[in-house]
Every structure is written in structure tokens, then in C-alpha cells.
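Why this split exists: single-chain examples teach little about how molecules sit against one another. For that reason, every record in the complexes split bundles all components of an assembly together and asks for one structure covering all of them. Below is a record exactly as it appears in the raw files.
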Amino acid sequence: MYSIISTISTWAIPAIIVFIPLYAFFRKVPVYETFVDGAKDGFDTAIQIIPHLVGMMVAISVFRASGAMDLMVGFVRPLFDAIGIPSEVLPLGVLRPITGAGSLAFTTDLIQQFGPDSLIGRMASTIQGSTDTTIYVLTVYFGAVGIKKGRYALKVGLLSDLIGFVAAIVVCFLVFA
Amino acid sequence: MVNFIWLFFILVGFIVAVLQGRVDDVTKALFTGAETGVTVCFGLISILVFWLGIMRIAEDAGLLQKIAKLLGPIVRFLFPDVPKNHPALGYIMSNMSANLLGLGNAATPMGIKAMQELQKLNPDKDAASPAMCTLLAMNTSSITLIPTTLIAIRLKFESSNPAEIVGTTLIATMIATCAAMLIDRWYRHRYYKSRPIPPLPKTPPPPNRSAPTSTT
């Protein structure tokens, strides 16, 4: 199963990049001009995201560097210890929705410290792999079209992150412990 | 909500920094954060430019409409507000498939393109439409079949079976995505209850470019 899917993943991009222009060529689309025309939008879109992303990144770095993140984790730790969940993975639950690079660094650190085949290592890998960085996705996607009011989108994202976090821990317990 | 979180991060960050005597570090982090934001966006430029070019070819060749038609039932169930055969549906499908394959670099430009198409249907350009919220929920929980980065890291630290987390990740990601879709439905329902039925665009807007978009 893994090898099949990883083969597909490897070949998907080259296949798409050959197939789309070829198909378009036979439909008499001027492929190169169309490519350049569409590609122009990419620059503007990326530039439009900058203010959104800078704003969020600043807030997140301030929160992390001040030690506020560690304090928040410290609050919930006793609860985790009481249920018997290794509290080492707890910061991941907080970090994962906020910063992709930060949580990946944290996961790497846990894997290095406890070994990739330990329960903590497996749990961290599963948590990191199972959801995306909600705040980043929200900032980039909404920033690109200039949406200022996200309505309930953030709540949905964070709630499902929480459910994914709990699910990852429970599944790892059932499978590996 | 975003306003609150943003203010919370900065305010609590600086208060804690003062209490812990880390004001210097935090000021430094502030500028590093700003720099990271710009660096990430610059990294996005190359990917966005390339993929949006390719996607324009697919759109003009009528491929997106084909994909939208093919997988219509699923996407229409998730996005009831989007008119049939609207290009947004094709982009949403491409975004979903790229996410499934773990092609994050390809998924983001397609998702952004889908957002731009949904924005055209959005009556209030400042606030997210329910369809936009659903697309976002789908991407924040992102179903991943193969977490490639993590397998690579586990391999680097000499795991005896780097891919053994594929199964657990798949189950967790599926639970998260189902939860996201359900919660989104619930909020959408509440949203529509709180206001009159929105004007639904009955016909897809005409193609706004003169390029050949002939569909069979």
C-alpha cells in the first residue's frame, strides 16, 4: 500500500505537467502564451499575502519567545499526567495549529530525544502528519482574496485540530502501546 | 475571532516577557517573525507563478470543467452553494487531489485559485462565504495519504520501520477531516438560520476571457 501510494506521489507532478499542456495543445490552446498569462497572477497573489502573513508570524513569534507558550503547556500538564498520556507530546497540540515550522522542529526534537520507534516518537509523528497548520492556511487562503472577516472558519479549524490531536493520541495508544 | 487571537498573542506575549525579563528576546523575535513572513511569501512566488500558469492552461483547455463534471456529486454535496460546472469546483477537486497525494506545493496554488473563484460568487467581498469556510476546513484538516516529510525524518533517525506511522496518521487525519466537515455543516446551518436565504447565482458566469473554452 505504502509503495503504491508513494509511487503515485512521485509520478503525479511530472504526469500532470506533461498531460495538461499536451491535452491543451490538441484542443488548439496556445499553450505557452496561456501559461505566461496565467502565471502573471502568481506574483500578485503572493505579494498580497505578505501583510497577512507578517502580522501573524510576528504575533506567533512574540508569543513563543516570551515563554507564554511554555506557561500554557504547564497549565494543562497535570491533567495529561493524570490520564497517563506522555505529557512530552502536549506542546505539539498547541503548536501544530499555530506554526508548521515550529511544530515540525518540535517533532524532530522529540524523535531525536526519545527515538523514532518509541511511543512518544510515534505519537509525535502521527500528530504532526495528521493535520495542517490551521492559522497559516487561513492566513494564506483568505489573505490571497482579501477576506477580512473569516466568520466561523477559525473555530471549525481549531476544533477539528483538537479532535485530530485526541484521535492521534488514542489511535497510537491502541496500535502501539 | 482572528482579531481576538492576534491581540491575545501579542498582549500576553509582552506581559509574560516583562514578568520573565525577556523583553529583549521578544523584541528580537518580533523582527524575526516579520522576516519569516516575508521569506515564506517569497518562497510562495515561484510555486504560485508556475502552478497558476499550468492551471490556466488546464482551464482554457476545458479540463477543469471536465474534472468538475466527473467528480461533481461529491463536491456538490460539500459545496451546495456553487453552481453546477462552475470552474471553482474544478479547482476544489484539484486542490483535494493534490492534498491527498501529499503535494503541498501544488495544493496551495490550486486552493488559492479555488478561493478566487469562490470570491467571484461571494456577495460580501470582505467576509468569507460558507463555501469558502468549507474549503478552508477541508484544507486545515487536510487528508494526507502519505506524510512524506515525517517518514523522511524518521528515516534520518534510523527508525526500524519509518513508514509504520502511515496507518495511524491516515486514521487520525480521516477522523479530523470528518469532524471538520461535520462542524462546518453545523456552523453553516446556524449561519443560514440567522439570516435570509442568500441570492443564489442561477447560471454560471460567462467565461471572462476570449480564449477558446469549448466544452463538448
